[in-house]
């Protein structure tokens, strides 16, 4: 599991500019609208998936005003998000790196074509359903800075499944359903989670040479830039890879 923090830090840095920031906000709002429809309620108290997405959006600095305006529209009967469905694409990047792409789309044919084009253009191959998903586990993820003994003890007491220490901070892995409860518990104890999310963690990682790893990263970035993409996960080991944010 170790090393997920590097992925998270790279994504945060890349999302810092205005163009990327706008895309991040747009993708969250689309996901929130779709979750409200899928869960049958635009009330976060009655829809756990919606509540989790809102918490994730706030952690990622999506303006609260944007979220509140959307919720009011949805609660007033707005059909925004009604045509979107989640689709998962699985395949391999150069070097045999496993890749999962989670998308929200109102047109499966368009999204499939765009994803397939990126895989092909960057030397990857799109596979069938189930091709690589078995190599990943769904987990809650929390990143804390700094890494202290008190933070570790608090995370364990609150129900963390696993901890990974580093000089930069502490990675906390949880049951997906418990991640935001544990993050709130940490806040109540005076800790400040830098990143909270539900993610897919590879069971094993692949180590590539710098040049080959860069090819994979270029493909992942191209997939993330697609309008319909929500998240991209891979089993590439970034520990010894130099990445420009």
TrEMBL record:
<keyword id="KW-0175">Coiled coil</keyword>
<feature type="domain" description="TACO1/YebC-like second and third">
    <location>
        <begin position="84"/>
        <end position="236"/>
    </location>
</feature>
<protein>
    <recommendedName>
        <fullName>Probable transcriptional regulatory protein Mrose_02579</fullName>
    </recommendedName>
</protein>
<dbReference type="GO" id="GO:0006355">
    <property type="term" value="P:regulation of DNA-templated transcription"/>
</dbReference>
<keyword id="KW-0805">Transcription regulation</keyword>
<dbReference type="InterPro" id="IPR048300">
    <property type="entry name" value="TACO1_YebC-like_2nd/3rd_dom"/>
</dbReference>
<dbReference type="Pfam" id="PF20772">
    <property type="entry name" value="TACO1_YebC_N"/>
</dbReference>
<keyword id="KW-0238">DNA-binding</keyword>
<keyword id="KW-0963">Cytoplasm</keyword>
<dbReference type="InterPro" id="IPR026564">
    <property type="entry name" value="Transcrip_reg_TACO1-like_dom3"/>
</dbReference>
<dbReference type="GO" id="GO:0003677">
    <property type="term" value="F:DNA binding"/>
</dbReference>
<dbReference type="InterPro" id="IPR002876">
    <property type="entry name" value="Transcrip_reg_TACO1-like"/>
</dbReference>
<feature type="domain" description="TACO1/YebC-like N-terminal">
    <location>
        <begin position="5"/>
        <end position="76"/>
    </location>
</feature>
<dbReference type="GO" id="GO:0005829">
    <property type="term" value="C:cytosol"/>
</dbReference>
<dbReference type="InterPro" id="IPR017856">
    <property type="entry name" value="Integrase-like_N"/>
</dbReference>
<dbReference type="InterPro" id="IPR049083">
    <property type="entry name" value="TACO1_YebC_N"/>
</dbReference>
<comment type="similarity">
    <text>Belongs to the TACO1 family.</text>
</comment>
<keyword id="KW-0804">Transcription</keyword>
<feature type="coiled-coil region">
    <location>
        <begin position="206"/>
        <end position="239"/>
    </location>
</feature>
<dbReference type="InterPro" id="IPR029072">
    <property type="entry name" value="YebC-like"/>
</dbReference>
<dbReference type="Pfam" id="PF01709">
    <property type="entry name" value="Transcrip_reg"/>
</dbReference>
């Amino acid at each position: 599991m170790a090393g997920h923090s590097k992925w998270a830090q790279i994504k945060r840095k890349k999302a810092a500019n205005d163009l990327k920031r706008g895309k991040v906000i747009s993708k969250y709002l689309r996901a929130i609208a779709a979750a409200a429809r899928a869960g049958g309620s635009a009330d976060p108290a009655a829809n756990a998936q919606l509540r989790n997405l809102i918490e994730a959006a706030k952690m990622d600095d999506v303006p609260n005003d944007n979220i509140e305006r959307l919720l009011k529209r949805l609660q007033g009967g707005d059909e925004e998000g009604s045509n979107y469905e989640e689709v998962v694409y699985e395949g391999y990047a150069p070097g045999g790196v496993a890749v999962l792409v989670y998308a929200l789309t109102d047109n499966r044919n368009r999204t499939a074509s765009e994803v397939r084009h990126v895989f092909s253009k960057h030397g990857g191959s799109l596979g069938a359903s189930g091709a690589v998903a078995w190599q990943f586990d769904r987990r809650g993820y929390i990143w804390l800075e700094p890494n202290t003994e008190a933070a570790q003890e608090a995370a364990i007491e609150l129900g963390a499944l696993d901890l990974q220490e580093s000089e930069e901070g502490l990675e906390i892995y949880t049951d997906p359903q418990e991640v935001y409860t544990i993050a709130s518990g940490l806040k109540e104890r005076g800790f400040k989670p830098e990143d909270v999310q539900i993610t897919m963690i590879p069971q094993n990682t692949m180590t590539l040479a710098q040049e080959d790893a860069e090819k994979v990263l270029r493909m992942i970035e191209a997939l993330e830039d697609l309008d319909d993409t929500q998240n991209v996960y891979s089993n590439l080991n970034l520990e010894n890879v130099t990445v420009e944010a």
